[in-house]
Structures are given as C-alpha cells and as structure tokens.
Amino acid sequence: MIGRLRGELVYKRPPQLMVDVGGVGYELEAPMSTFYELPSLGASVTLFTHLAVREDAQILYAFARESERALFRSLVRVTGVGPRMALAILSGMDARRFAQCIEQGDEAALIRVPGIGRKTAQRLIVEMRDRLDGLGTGLPAGAGTGPRPGSGEDSALADAISALIALGYKPVDANRMARSADDGAKTSEEIIRGALRSVTAS
C-alpha cells in the first residue's frame, strides 16, 4: 500500500496531478480541497495517498492531510458512494461544512453535489453521523495558488470548466458556473472554488 508521497510537483490540472519521486512520476487524482493547497510547479510537495484497485485500473488518490484521507476512506464505505463521488463531496465542501450537513440532516446541501440524489444523501446522513467523531472536520479551505501560467486567462477558465465537468457537472452548468465565478484575473483553482461555493451556498 502506498500511503504517502514526497517529491516534485510536475503537473496539475484538476482533478489530476503528477509528483516525481526519485525519477518516477506518480499520477494521482485529488479533490479541490487539496488542489487549493498545492505549491507551484517544481516545488516539493508531500501528499497522503489512498490506492484504489479495480479490475480495470489502479488509481492513486492524493490528499493534503491525513484527515482528508480519513474522511475519503469513510465516505467510500457508504453504500452507493464511490471514489468519484467522494472526491466531488470533498471538492464541493470542506470537512467542517460536511459535518454540519450530516449533523443537521441537510439533505438539500448534499444533493447539490453532482451525482448525489435524495436516497444517497439520506444514506450519508445516517451512516456518517456516528463516524464524525473519529474524523478530522476542521480542514481549512486553503489559500489559493500562485499566478497563472503564461498561457493566459482563457486557459485558466478552460481548465476550471474541464475540472467541473470531471467532478460530475454537466458541461452547460460547468461553463455557466465557471464564467460567473471568473473576473478575468483568477487562477483556475480560484475560479473552481468560487463556482463550487456558489453551489453549496445556494
């Protein structure tokens, strides 16, 4: 089992990133809560990981801290919640907000996460309520990332739209959400954060 990686960040485009560890490039998928805290390309990064083995693939998921990974692992044990949905949940709200939804039985907020219907929201509330005490629920939202790469603002907007689609939003909704959150000077991560906040706050 691969539990942690430390190396050079060589690629990041939500939800994928790559870390070079001793000349070996590890491809990983991560929630936006982790992307918000990634350093600039070329910098050293340490990530906690979870390896998911399927019949057709082995996928390595990355998290900024152990509490994020613990919540992810708890989520995928809920009936009907797979890794993709767990990533969408961690991208749409931080652990504190998720805990509030569970404690308050807020189905409406959970249903705003793509892929979660009413029955899944109800299962999450029932099955996760007793697990919250053993999980870290104070994940900070992060402080964003550095300047955009030289490819320009259109690239940041396009990356944000692609990331939202990868998180499960329909292309037309992803386009609308990203454009409404962009002011022409934000990084792709900042656009995504704004777009996701507008959904969870509505």
Give the helix/strand layout:
Layout (H helix, E strand, L loop, with lengths): L3 E10 L2 E6 L2 E6 L2 H4 L8 E10 L4 E6 L2 H10 L7 H10 L2 H10 L2 H5 L6 H11 L24 H14 L4 H11 L6 H14 L1
Antiparallel strand pairs: 1-2, 1-4, 2-3, 4-5
Helix pairs in contact: 7-8, 7-9, 8-9
Q: Mind explaining what this structure looks like?
A:
- With 202 residues, the chain is α+β, with helices and mostly antiparallel strands.
- It has 3 domains: 4-63, OB fold (Dihydrolipoamide Acetyltransferase, E2P), CATH 2.40.50.140; 67-134, DNA polymerase, domain 1, CATH 1.10.150.20; 153-195, Ubiquitin-associated (UBA) domain (Helicase, Ruva Protein, domain 3, Orthogonal Bundle), CATH 1.10.8.10.
- It has 9 helices and 5 strands.
- Strands 3-2-1-4-5 form a 5-stranded antiparallel beta sheet.
- Strand 1 and strand 2 form a beta hairpin.
- Helix 7 (153-166) crosses helix 9 (188-201) and helix 8 (171-181) packs across helix 9.
- The longest helix has 14 residues, at 153-166.
- Residues 137-153 have low confidence and may be disordered.
The CATH class label of the largest domain is: Mainly Alpha
Global structural class = alpha+beta
**What's the pLDDT, averaged over the residues?**
84
CATH topology title of the largest domain: DNA polymerase, domain 1
Q: Tell me roughly what share of residues is in helical segments.
A: 40-55%
Q: Strand count, sense and closure of the main sheet?
A: 5 strands, antiparallel
CATH H level, superfamily name of the largest domain = 5' to 3' exonuclease, C-terminal subdomain
Basic shape: globular
Domain count, please report it: 3
